[in-house]
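The data are set out underneath:

___
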Amino acid sequence: MPVRVTRSSPGAGLLAAEVDGAAMVVDDGEIAASKTRKARRSLRSAEQPDEDASGAAMHNEHSTETSPGVPSPVNCLQLEGTPVRKRASSVTEVEGRREMQTLKQRRLEARITLAHTSEARQTVVFGRYTIVAWYPSAYPDPYRQSDVLYICPFTLKFFTDEFALKRHRSRCKWRHPPGREVYRKDDLSFFELAGSRETEYCQNLCLMSKLFLKHKVAFFHMRNFLFYVMVRWHSDGGHILGYFSKEVDSPTDYNLSCILTLPQHQRQGYGGLLIDFSYLLTRAEGKTGTPERPLSDLGLLSYRAYWKNVIFSKLQQLGQLGELSIRDLSIQTGLKQYDIVTTLQSLGMVKYWRGKHFVVTTPEFDHWVSERADKTEGNARSLILDPSALEKKLLLGYQSKPLAEQSIRGHLKKSPASRV
């Protein structure tokens, strides 16, 4: 970068420095104190160490022109007659930091794009089902980079090849999820797992669920959560259909944090069954609950459909006789009053008349009643949980006073897995 310094006019006290055709007018008295640092800084930024000598020669040439009482060295750029002062060193540092941040952001975006394009199409072999994953999960590198991921249907342990899975299955004695069986009706059961006790299984469950959930973020902080796994019994044991999790002590009365029905069992009514079980636990505790906010679009649609069915069922039982307040409806169903009101408003069933709000029936309600009467038994969508099948000793005692190992073994012996 050639630098040429000349005096603009005799006796004017100004020097005109021309750098690659760009003119800069600088006070003559400030040249001696600042020219060396400015020239070396510009040369160093351009990474041309061979021009250090020219900068030193320029400093020696004008060192005799230094005047006493020179003010602190600053660079004064003349732009259309208005001087603008700035510190070149601070500006250079800020620009450098911005460039580094931009570079890091681009690298991060490239890794995320690569993950979504390469890992999102990972194939998962789960029991007798072969499923294509929807999203990448946080499995360790050897497993995340594998084209096919093999998962044990009972322990949820993962492998990169079929031989390793067969070797594990030959030694695995599990025939159902760990924890306590808190509900059983016919061939359907629910198991309660404390994240602080069954940590490995709960972590594997979260890692597998991330393959089919976009916004799943918690993988390794299991201590504050309870998991409820829904299984259906077959000849070889209890196979998982789906699960939901919730906080142990939620200050906002959240009765559900995350919910998943496995893809091979979706569109069969099991999602509504999981939601219904969360409210069954809420009613057993004598409380009212609501799912954790914010809800996704699909989650809001699922809950609105469930809330509509529960409210319509209570209105059908009420018939034309008697009155029922929103508070009484909340206590009977376990739903929050806010959820009941917003659902009725979305259905257009709340009317204001003579200073009071009333719930009125609509053609949609009549259609729901006739459609429910025509449903055949045995369909998963018509499955109804039996409160009498729920074990009375629930999560509070299980969490605060852990059971002894002997009592756990005794409880597991009662499950049909011990007879398989």
